[in-house]
Each structure stands twice: as structure tokens, then as C-alpha cells.
Amino acid sequence: MRAVAIKQYGGIEQLKEIELERPTIESGQVLVRLEATSVNPIDWKLREGYLRQMLDWSFPIVLGWDAAGVIEEVGANVTEWKVGDRVFARPETTRHGTYAEFVAVDAHLLSFIPDNMTSVEAAAVPLAGLTAWQALFTHGNVAEGERVLIHAGAGGVGHLAIQLAKHAGAYVYTTASKKNHELVKQLGADEVIDYKTESFENRLSELDLVFDTVGGDVQSNSYKVLKKETGRLVTIVGIQDEKEAAAYDVKAYGVWLEPDGEQLKRLAALVEESQLKVVIHASYPFSEKGIKDAHSLSETGHVSGKIVITF
What we know:
single chain, Quinone Oxidoreductase, Chain A, domain 1, 2 domains
């Protein structure tokens, strides 16, 4: 099968199209023929070698952790799924990723793709959607009526987080550049702050939850706008200073995504009910050039929604 992999860490020039054996599935797994995958910032961060201590893998490494396609083969002890089912998943984090024509996925991590959802849209959801879900609900415990700030609301994770927080009944603030204000309002943001012209910490206070997808000064300043004692900060970029949260008398949680098929099914149900919309910024064909172009775009940090690769 065709795959795009890296054989050493570095820039986009390390992404090379190669031939690999089609994965052999084990008991409890299915083989998915991919129709689409997506590119996330973790992909190029891993490609650059930033995660080598956490993910100490041998080469070649096939990147990618979003799968959408059709089940080609079903392993032993799989009863819920059959050949031909349309599915999507965030597979386990291994060096055998989804920049490939086929991927083996543990059956318990799969969700159905709703009839009103394309494979392109499905590929955009697993990693970003589960990240948003776990940040808001597993760690953030967001509740109806709470006031929530979501940083970078037009981004791949942010645009889904806005919708999930609104669905939970929260009042949602978000930061976005002027060109994305209309988009985030359409997604449900109650108030938008232009981070280029206004400091959110000067405008907001007494918030229940901040979802940090940016880090740096944004994280440090986020502590200032939370309620003492009950305020929570959830971040996907790591907690920079454990003492900061204590100094402001708030809680801080770092999120490392856990693949979860049941949560993905709940996201699929929201799409099926037209409660969750997926924004696609750009789509590229599966090829060495296509994935290189997608990485280059992702690295700019100016993406509204998700970047998808189609097979």
C-alpha cells in the first residue's frame, strides 16, 4: 500500500511516499480502507522531533491520527462491525498512522459515520473533536449556565469546542482575528474578542472555565480572568508553571488526548442531529506533495477549521 512517512526528524522535506505492507489485523481489530484523513499540529511537531522523548519510535514513522473510510476486513471477536461499514476513528497512538491507504483500528475506538456526513467531514473530527470533548467535559466539567472562554475559536479544536460548550448550555466567549468573527458567531460564540486589538484579560473576569489552545502569555493571562477557588483552566499545550494556578487560587489541567470510541459516537450523534458542524479550511489529495502542502499550511497557525487529506 502507499503511505507517506518520515525516516528521520526534520522539515517537510522528510515526508516521503513509500510502499508498505498492508497492515495485518489482530483479534478485536478491523482494517479500514481510508477515504480521508486530516493534518493536525501534532503531526508536524512529531515530524520535527519535538515529541521524540514521549513517543520514542523507530523509523519509518507514518504520521496521522484521524481515520475515515470503509471497513475492508474484520478480525476475530469483532461483533459490532462488518465489512462495508462506513466508520471513523482516532486510532491508538502508534508509528503506524493514517497517512496510508489502510490502517488497523481497534474496534472499540470506531464510530459510525452518520448519513448526513461526508468522509471528508468525518476525517476532520476524531482528534480535534475528542480533544475538545475531553477538555470541556472530562477535565473541565463545564455545566449549564457557566461562562467559558475558548481561545482560538476558529481553529481546528476551537471551532468544535465552541459548539460543544454552547450545546452544554454555557455562555461562550472566544478569541479570534477579525476575519473569523462572523464564523465563530455562526458557530455559537456569544462574544468575540479580537486578540490582535484587545487584551481579553482587560475585558473579562469571574469566568468559570478557560480552554487554552495557545499557551505562552495567553495561558498566564488566562488565570487572571477565572473565579477564585472554582475557576478551571484546561490546556492542550501543557501547564507552563504549576505555581501560577495556585497563586490565583484556581485549578489547572493539562490534557493529553485519549482515543475513545464511545465519546466519538456521541460526537457523531450531534452531527447526525445537526448540532455540530465541521469547518474544512482546505483539502489536499493523498500524495507526498499534498501532505507537504498541508503541513506547510498547518504550520502557519492561520487555519480556520481543519485541513483534510483525501484518498
